[in-house]
Amino acid sequence: MAQAKKGKLNFRCPSCFMRDIDIDMFYDNEKKEYYCLRCCFKGSEEDVLRLNEQARYRYRAINLRVVDFGEDNKPITYKKHERGQQ
Hints:
The chain is α+β, with helices and mostly antiparallel strands. It contains two helices and five strands; from the N terminus they run H-E-E-E-H-E-E.
């Protein structure tokens, strides 16, 4: 998404992003905090970065596909998914 105004870089709203909605947050210079127009989330840059890192952790294996589930107590085998493959 494009940034609405120049200034500090906007981040994705962590609350909306956890619900699979991709919304940029806006920065309030007076309060020194980020806020979302769609939901009621607001927070400091540290809060936004921490929560966005949690979202990245959730989707860390999105490009991996399970090849073999393995037997009990054996690791699951993955392979990197290439675009256009099944």
